[in-house]
Write a structure and sequence with these properties.
single chain, 139 residues, alpha+beta, 8-stranded mixed sheet
């Protein structure tokens, strides 16, 4: 079954935000990866920033990151919807539909973290992050 999960971007303040939510919501960070753990090269000022984190508490869960947009003020949070798919064909259909009159930020592709992933902003300005368990790419 596919599922929707919020993705919060904190623009340089992700670790502080996650600690705040852990304390406030009696939750914990179950995964955290930084940009320096990626095989992709990023500018040096991004390396210690959070590339991806997952937070869970008794009432809620969400994904979080520091993002890559330096044009926004540090700590100015924004939200994207992260949808986990179980079938790549459904992921393709939804990605295509959301892309209509929208903007593809990251085309669907296989990632080093083991999922097929893409990002699109729809025609209403809503950012969608679509992931699916990675089947082996056909060569």
């Amino acid at each position: 079954m596919s599922s929707l999960q919020p993705h919060l971007t904190f623009h340089g303040m992700c670790r502080d935000a996650l600690q705040f939510y852990a304390d406030a919501l009696d939750g914990k960070v179950v995964t955290l990866s930084t940009f320096d753990e990626s095989p992709v090269e990023f500018p040096s000022h991004f390396l210690n920033r959070v590339m991806h984190a997952e937070f869970v508490s008794p009432e809620l869960s969400f994904f979080a990151s520091d993002g890559l947009d330096d044009s926004l003020a540090q700590g100015s949070g924004d939200v994207a919807f992260h949808v986990r798919f179980t079938e790549q064909t459904r992921q393709d259909v939804v990605f295509s539909a959301l892309s209509d009159q929208g903007q593809i930020i990251m085309p669907l592709d296989y990632t080093f973290w083991g999922v097929r992933f893409g990002i699109v902003t729809d025609k209403f300005g809503i950012r969608w992050m679509l992931s699916c368990s990675a089947e082996s790419p056909k060569d």
